[in-house]
Amino acid sequence: MRPANNNNENNIKKLFLETRSVSMQTIITDDLSCKAESRVSAVNKAIAEEIGAKKYRIWFENSTRLTIAEGYVKIGVPNLFIANWIESHFAKEINRAVERVTEEKLKITFAIDPELAGRGKQIQLEPAKKIVNQQQGKATQYAEKKSDKYEKLKLNLDNFVVGSSNELAYNTAKAVANNDKVSFNPLFIHGGYGVGKTHLLQGICNAVQKNRPGTNWLYLSAEDFVNQFVLALKTKKLEAFRRRMRQTDLLAIDDIHFLASKLSSQEEFLHTFNSIDLAGKQVVLASDAHPKLIGRLSDKLVNRFISGMVVKIENPDLNTRCQICKQFALHRRLHIPESVIRYIAENIRSNVRELQGAVLKLIAFSALQNQKINLHAAKEILSEHLSRTDPIVHISDIESAVAAFFSITAADLHSSKKDRTISLARHFSMYLARKHTNMSSPEIGKCMGNKNHATVLLACKRIEDQIKQNEHLHWNSPAGNKVSKARTILAKLENAIAG
């Protein structure tokens, strides 16, 4: 009987040890879970400190779920729109907050959380799987170096908002789209950033595809043209490249100013243009500047460009800006009161993209908070956005003031001329643009005849030093040699800009 008692004792002891092990595992698991929750709470608090309580409440408090595991910080979101917005606007702040709390550099990922997806008003977006498939399809097309050039482009003429600032450009675009035998070639559309040049080019191509299905058209940027030309040279497939470019009924090239200073590409494009023109076919071009104002562009190309129809798109007027805001909101199924539309249009005067950005911010707020937009809310939501857009001083104001003071033309500022007067005027223009606008050095350089950002920085530093030393500066004018102190010149120019 003794062995049986031993067995019972052993079983009891074994059961006790197993129970104790399970209890310890539960305690450890609970402890780890508490630590994980504590870290998540600390990270959320750190994010709120980084971006501010108001932004955290709008974008994170009820719209995200954060988990930390295995070297990753996963942020659950209700939809792709919010994921993209948070990633593009708060990525640096999130990384700083995570590193501050965890003392590690963890990878940030986003995922659609089904529980969060049911909260608030939903924004209609394509499923993530569909977007991934589209991206994979594009990658496959690129790998095969073969794309469907008749695939419909994003923008069309039907939803282009027409106003006094762009009516002529729109009508000429319609003429090209509806008639394969127009009397001008090329059609050259130019204007500032975000005024609708790309919209018109893509709209022409889509209209041609619809109205004349057999038309062989091609749309690409000047950068794509240069890259494909260089690749064709390297791979010895220049003839195939030329056939593709020149055997078209309609060639639409965006951002043609990209050809500046690229002599070989300019020569190739000149021959491409001549071949298409001689065949009685159409070329449509878009640029940020008039052909004569594009620095380091060959005279042959400039002459060819101005031999056609050169049309400028101005910044949209108030009524056009209102219509743009209405259309953008309507397309996204959000009703915005007339007072809010007018408030946005009156405070953003520079370009279409800034208007759309403001409306998009209101759409995001409405979706996240499930609230209707009113004027009071719009003013609060857009306060930061408006402070960063549409400066009081524009680059065109600066160029006009500088050109008038130094007795030159705005075209001289954009040219490649390097005589004393034009160089001094160009340097002051760059310095004033950095001081009085929100433009970056690359943007200023692009406006000043496609100069690089290093040239802008050097020019600004030179003017700063001259102002600091209050040097006597010399230049030539139609009345003869002129001399003045740097601070005096700066004061006169700033008065002219403000005047």
In a few lines, what is going on in this structure?
This protein has 499 residues and is an alpha/beta fold. The chain has helices spanning 2-51, 53-61, 80-102, 114-117, 128-143, 167-178, 197-211, 222-234, 238-246, 263-278, 299-306, 318-331, 338-347, 352-369, 375-381, 383-387, 395-405, 410-414, 420-436, 441-447, 453-469, 486-498, and strands at residues 65-69, 72-77, 107-112, 187-191, 217-221, 250-254, 282-287, 309-313, 472-477, 480-485. The protein is globular, with a radius of gyration of 30 Å.
Describe this structure in words.
With 499 residues, this protein is α/β, with parallel strands linked by helices. The protein folds into four domains: 32-117, GMP Synthetase, Chain A, domain 3 (2-Layer Sandwich); 157-313, Rossmann fold; 318-387, Helicase, Ruva Protein, domain 3; 395-498, Chromosomal Replication Initiator Protein Dnaa, Chain: A (Orthogonal Bundle). Helices cover 60% and strands 11% of the residues. The chain is built from 22 helices and ten strands. It has helices at residues 2-51, 53-61, 80-102, 114-117, 128-143, 167-178, 197-211, 222-234, 238-246, 263-278, 299-306, 318-331, 338-347, 352-369, 375-381, 383-387, 395-405, 410-414, 420-436, 441-447, 453-469, 486-498, and strands spanning 65-69, 72-77, 107-112, 187-191, 217-221, 250-254, 282-287, 309-313, 472-477, 480-485. The strands form three sheets. Strands 5-6-7-4-8 form a five-stranded parallel β-sheet, with helices on both faces. The protein has a three-stranded mixed β-sheet with strand order 1-2-3. Strand 2, helix 3 and strand 3 form a beta-alpha-beta unit. Helix 17 packs across helix 22 and helix 20 (441-447) crosses helix 21. The longest helix is centred in the first third of the chain and has 50 residues, at 2-51. The radius of gyration is 30 Å and the shape is globular.
